[in-house]
Request: fold
Amino acid sequence: MLNLGSIVRSAAGHDKNRFYAVVKIDQNYIWIADGKERKLNKPKRKNPKHIARTNAVLDFSDITSDSKLRVLLGPFNQQEGK
Reply:
C-alpha cells in the first residue's frame, strides 16, 4: 500500500530507475517528487502501474524542502549508479 512519504522507483518512462517520494495520492494517480527534477511544488503525476514500490517510507513531516528531500533520496539513487 502506498502512503505519503513512500519511496518508489519509476519503472517506465524517461525517468526509469530513479527514486522518488510520494507527495500526493488520489483515486487514479500518484504525484511524486525528488527535489531535483521534480520539485515539491510541481510534482510529477504518475500512473501507479508505472512505479515499483519499495519498503522504505520517509516521515512526510520531515520533508520540508527540496534540498531535504534530495538528501533523503540520495542513498537510493546512488545505489543505481547515478
Summary: The chain has one domain: 6-79. The mean pLDDT is 89.
